[in-house]
Write a structure and sequence with these properties.
It is built from eight helices and nine strands. The protein is an alpha+beta fold. The strands form three sheets. The protein has a four-stranded antiparallel β-sheet with strand order 3-4-5-8. A three-stranded antiparallel β-sheet has the order 7-6-9, with no helix packed on it. Helix 1 crosses helix 3. The two termini are 41 Å apart.
Length: 260
C-alpha cells in the first residue's frame, strides 16, 4: 500500500516520524472506532469488516517502512525544514543564509516568488489595460514560476530554482519532509537526516557537494563543513543528497561544483 495513503487510513500526520509505537497506537484507535462488533448484521457490518482489512494492510505497510531489515528502527527524516532549516546560497563568493519553514514561513525570496505566482492573473490584466509596453513581464514571471507550480502545492517540498541558488555549477534544489529518501540515511544518525535533491542544468561526471552545519540559526557561515561527491549526474534528474550530523541543529547544501 502507498505510504501516503496508509498514513491517511490511520489518520497519521504526514509530519510525524514513523515509529512502531506511533503506528500501533493509531491502528488500535482506528480499529476500535470501526470495529465490526460495534455494528449490527447487514451492510454496515460488512463495510466495517472490509475496512478492518484496509486498516491491517495500512498498519503492515507502515511498520515495514518504519523498520529496517534487521528490525532496528529506521532513521527518521530530520525536521530541520519545519524548525527553520538553513539553505546556503553562494552569491558573489559569500554564502547567503535563507531560513525555510515547511509550516508556511519561507525565506523572503521564496515567499515573493510564490506570492507573484499566485497574484499573476490580476497583475497581467491590470498591466495589459494600463500600459501595453510591459505586458511581456508578467509572461516571464509565469514562465519562471511554471516549473515550481507542482512543488508549490506540496507542503512536503521546498524548492529553489537554479537562478536562486547561485551554485558554482547551476542547479535547483528541493528539500523534503516526507521521508521519501529515508532509506539513504545512515543508522548512525540518531537525530535523522536532512533529505534533499539537486537538479543540475548540465550532466556532470563528478559532482562535489559542500555541506554546511551550524547550531545558530542566524549563522552567516557554517560551523562545520563536509564534502561529498556524486558520480555520473544527469541533467534535470533528481540527485538525492541525504546527510546527517547529530552535533548540529541545522544543515544545508553550501555549494556544488562539477570537477570533470
Amino acid at each position: 500500500m502507498d505510504l501516503t495513503f496508509a498514513r491517511s487510513v490511520l489518520r497519521l500526520d504526514p509530519a510525524i516520524p514513523l515509529t512502531p509505537e506511533v503506528i500501533e497506537q493509531a491502528y488500535a484507535h482506528e480499529s476500535w472506532e470501526r470495529h465490526p462488533s460495534r455494528y449490527p448484521e447487514g451492510e454496515a457490518k460488512q463495510a466495517a469488516e472490509a475496512w478492518a482489512g484496509t486498516l491491517a494492510e495500512a498498519r503492515a505497510s507502515l511498520l515495514d517502512a518504519a523498520t529496517t531489515a534487521d528490525g532496528a528502527a529506521a532513521p527518521v527524516t530530520r525536521r530541520g525544514l519545519s524548525r527553520g532549516a538553513i539553505i546556503g546560497i553562494v552569491a558573489g563568493g559569500l554564502a547567503l543564509v535563507a531560513v525555510l519553514v515547511i509550516a508556511g514561513i519561507v525565506a523572503v525570496q521564496v515567499a515573493r516568488q510564490f506570492g507573484e505566482q499566485f497574484a499573476a492573473p490580476p497583475v497581467v490584466e491590470e498591466t495589459q489595460t494600463g500600459d501595453e509596453s510591459v505586458t511581456d513581464q508578467p509572461g516571464d514571471d509565469e514562465i519562471a514560476g511554471g516549473d515550481a507550480t507542482p512543488e508549490a502545492t506540496d507542503p512536503n517540498v521546498e524548492r529553489l530554482e537554479a537562478s536562486e541558488t547561485f551554485f558554482t555549477f547551476p542547479a535547483a534544489i528541493e528539500f523534503y519532509s516526507d521521508g521519501r529518501y529515508g532509506h539513504l540515511c545512515g543508522l548512525e544518525y540518531l537525530e535523522g537526516c536532512w533529505e534533499s535533491a539537486l537538479f543540475t542544468e548540465q550532466d556532470c561526471a563528478a559532482l562535489e557537494i559542500d555541506l554546511g552545519f551550524a547550531n545558530d540559526i542566524d549563522a552567516i557561515r557554517p560551523e562545520e563543513t563536509r564534502m561529498v561527491t556524486e558520480a555520473e549526474v544527469a541533467a534535470g534528474e533528481a540527485t538525492p543528497v541525504v546527510f546527517g550530523n547529530d552535533a548540529y541543529d541545522y544543515g544545508w547544501v553550501e555549494n556544488i561544483r562539477c570537477t570533470s
